[in-house]
Amino acid sequence: MKFTVDRAVLLKALAHVQSVVERRNTIPILANVLLEATKDGTLRLTATDMEIAIVEEVVGAAVAQPGKTTAPAATLYEIVRKLPEAAKVELQHPGGDAPLALRAGRFATSLVVLPVEDFPSMTEGKLPTVFSLKAGTLRALIDRTRFAISTEETRYYLNGIYLHAGESDGTPVLRAVATDGHRLARVEEPLPDGAKGMPGVIVPRKTVAELRKLADEAQDEIEIRLSDTKIQFRFGAVALTSKLIDGTFPEYERVIPRGNDKVLRVDKKAFEDAVNRVAAISTERSRPVKLSLDRNHLLLSAASPDQGQAQEELDGEVVRYENGPLEIGFQARYLTDITGLIEGEVEFRFADGSAPTLVQDVAKTDALYVLMPMRV
Amino acid sequence: MATLCRDCLRVTAEDVPACPCGSPRLVRHPELLRLTVAHVDCDAFYAAIEKRDRPELLTRPVIVGGGRRGVVAACCYVARTRGVRSAMPMFQALRACPDAVVIRPDMAKYAAEARRIRALMEALTPLLEPLSIDEAVLDLAGTAALHGAPPAAVLARFAQAVEREVGVTVSIGLAPNRLLAKIAAERDKPRGFAVIGRAEAAALLAPEPVTLLPGVGPALARRLAAAGITRLGQLQALPERDALARFGEEGPSLVARARGEDPRPVRPEREARSISAETTFERDLREAAELERPLWHLCEKLARRLGEKGLAAGGVVLKLKTAGFALRTRHARLPAPTRLPETLFEAARPLLRKEADGTAFRLVGIGAQPLAPAAEADRGDLADPEAPRRAARWAAVEALRARFGEGAVVRGRGLAPR
């Protein structure tokens, strides 16, 4: 194998694939990237952690001799990153156990390789459901749900985003849902063509993170293919394939409160700033903040046995609340995680001080959040 | 100096050279009538019960042990004179004492006898804290009027009652606090009655090695020795500031204990730190599916124990013992405390599946750790709104079982395979 390629082109592809490689690895081959150069001038890079595989094709490499090998992904990335910007990189591998030679200008290095046969291939199988989403739409689905993904191992089926087809007021929608038991996020988009009848799938947290990084670079459409065990995202020259979480997502619809009739509308910025200021007093890890409501009046307060107490009042200028007195407590971060996703005005719908509370953006109702209160 | 006769129980405020009853078993101490904390320890408990049941063994060295773990569980005083000690590996004990009579432990019998002794203690004071099957600490403060006798005499009477009714002997340490009471009980064994008063404690402890203190093990003893401290007297002389600097937060309390001070009260119910259930199989099991059935039964048992104690599990500990006696424990934290068998089981099952790699296991156990208040258990959350209903169902099942017997309601999982 021998080819020459622009440093910038190689670096971009390596940055994508090396990100999937686990830093601490007990299986040496998983630390490597598979490099394949074909006759027609295509260079293909593959990395996997056995759960996720990423394949990126680079065009514009001058392939002198087709072939393939595997080399340490992180090291190769580091070296290429440190080469001069306009450098041309030559990679050469004579085959067998011989090291991979990299040359760029007057720099040369040789890297230990592992046999291509040892590199695990992740078979995609049939992926019958195929649809596309705008990159911006996918980003918005992820950004407004990922904060609620659980990291708890015992309920592994909560360790991802549940993606499925549903119905909202008679309109078919694509829904992304995540919950850790304390909060739940549900975002919906009009159901794209091809997604009708798709199985509900749970996309693992790491896949979500990798996808989100890649989606930043995607300009237009991202194609999604899936079965009930695998999902693939394709855009440009990149294909990210991932196993899905083998579990049943809870029936979340039942925990979304329907009859909450005590409505608070509050300016997002005023509210968020007040929460952050008040919570600063708290020494507990959960930083509980108490909301005391009365007609067009909101008092936020927090107390700590060692540090003292803090409070802030918000009134008619930024608060609209027409119901009777109510007291309810939440973890400060749970509140700001949600208000951080809201632009102008936040709507809270309460039942009472101990029941799940509904939170929405007044201007954008495609996303809905549920928060469990805590005792304060 | 006050005197107590351990045979006729006569108490005199002044020193008497001999008891009118003729007994030489007198306890003399200036603080005798003021001390209330007692440490009671049965002498070579398992071996003593075996000797009681087989009088022909009275003069023979008796070792209770062998069995599963192959170590000495208890040995009589005859065996001790030959160098046998508790927890010694059996082969070593038999090398020291080849003619010993080895008896397999009969834990059910010892537990029954221990309960009889416990009942006798309960008649003395409500401030009773069992420390093990054959050891307890009691505080008899304020009981003198009730018993019509000072604590020292009440304890001597108790020792007689144990000998008469159970047929084994106890050693008693009487002191102003539990630390000194324990040290006292160790000083006069077997069938002893030792007193350590407040006034003499420091001087009495000073020449003793630091390892005399409970809690000073080999590691701490090495650290102390490295600082040139081997005797309790040296610890006593250490100023608090130096104790803190050299031995950290534990330093000052270590110095206090070296002086014979111990602020810990006697607590009737020691708070359980973990609750567990385990079972040993009739034959070794390897398959996850085979191991899951006993695990399920243990989860039900654990759930019941949690219920009885008003506690919940914040996490589960899975315990496995291999055929080769290697112990494996695995822990999983629960997202929220539970007292339901199925939630315990669902948390323990993945741990079990990871360990069931073909290894043969002889024992499985499940424990609740950490413990949490029952009020926080099974309240449910957004991902598990059904938890309160499952809790109500389990309560109903338990109520049915209490009324109609264990077999009244059985989970499919708990049924034996056909």
TrEMBL record, chain A:
InterPro entries documented for this protein: DNA_clamp_sf, DNA_polIII_beta, DNA_polIII_beta_C, DNA_polIII_beta_cen, DNA_polIII_beta_N
Q: Where's the DNA polymerase III beta sliding clamp central domain? A: 133-251
Which molecular function term from Gene Ontology is one that the record holds? DNA-directed DNA polymerase activity
Q: Where is the DNA polymerase III beta sliding clamp C-terminal domain?
A: 254-375
Per UniProt, subcellular location reads as: Cytoplasm
- State the Gene3D superfamilies in the record: 3.70.10.10, DNA Polymerase III, subunit A, domain 2
Keyword annotations of the record: Cytoplasm, DNA replication, DNA-binding, DNA-directed DNA polymerase, Nucleotidyltransferase, Transferase
Question: What is the role of this chain?
Answer: Confers DNA tethering and processivity to DNA polymerases and other proteins. Acts as a clamp, forming a ring around DNA (a reaction catalyzed by the clamp-loading complex) which diffuses in an ATP-independent manner freely and bidirectionally along dsDNA. Initially characterized for its ability to contact the catalytic subunit of DNA polymerase III (Pol III), a complex, multichain enzyme responsible for most of the replicative synthesis in bacteria; Pol III exhibits 3'-5' exonuclease proofreading activity.
**Assembly and binders:** Forms a ring-shaped head-to-tail homodimer around DNA.
The text of the family note is: Belongs to the beta sliding clamp family.
What is the name of this protein? Beta sliding clamp
What is the species of this protein?
Caldovatus aquaticus
From TrEMBL, chain B:
List the source organism: Caldovatus aquaticus
Q: What is this protein called?
A: DNA polymerase IV
Q: Which cofactor does it need?
A: Mg(2+)
Q: How is the cofactor bound?
A: Binds 2 magnesium ions per subunit.
Reactions it catalyzes: DNA(n) + a 2'-deoxyribonucleoside 5'-triphosphate = DNA(n+1) + diphosphate
Q: Which NCBIfam families match?
A: PRK02406.1 (NF002677), PRK02794.1 (NF002751)
Q: Is DNA repair set as a keyword in this record? A: yes
What are the record keywords, sorted?
A: Cytoplasm, DNA damage, DNA repair, DNA replication, DNA-binding, DNA-directed DNA polymerase, Magnesium, Metal-binding, Mutator protein, Nucleotidyltransferase, Transferase
* Assembly and binders: Monomer.
Where Mg(2+) binds, per the record, is at D41, D134
